[in-house]
Amino acid sequence: MxxxxxxxxxxxxxxxxLLGSCSRSKYKAATYPMGERVQVxxxxxxxxxxxxxxxxxxxLSARVPQNRYFLVRLSAANASNGDLMVPNMTIEDDNxxxxxxxxxxxxxxxxxxFLRQVKPAEAAQGNVVFDAPPRHYKLKIVDENEExxxxxxxxxxxxxxxxxxxxxxxxxx
Length: 173
What we know:
By secondary structure, this protein is mainly beta. The chain contains 1 helix and 11 strands, in the order αβββββββββββ.
């Protein structure tokens, strides 16, 4: 008699476990092109441009990276009604290698900083910096709770200005 009462309870428990596991679908992060506004949680990110540097600073005080300095200029706007911290970022190449944002931005122009608290309806703007080899990357951006994320596709460009070719025998002006 005792076992007959236990069967409906066990059946209900099993059903709730099965339904709970079905409702938790695997989170699929979206990838957006550079320049597009991307909202992840209460943070609206916009990646404007990138820059590769072989060093930061000049002379004896120049900082030299292990690979290259990769600067990503972006904006992170707070769409919530309270202060929030903009989490740190990583970049990922096509082979799955990832590189974390550097904690030291000394000498980086318009460095966004490593700890970024943003007030409601305001934005943090500037450069984040990585030490990475020149490749095609996706910037991983996350929400304020670091639970949801998206990617921003960043093509490999060096943004170098090419000098005008000169005709042989012409004078330099």
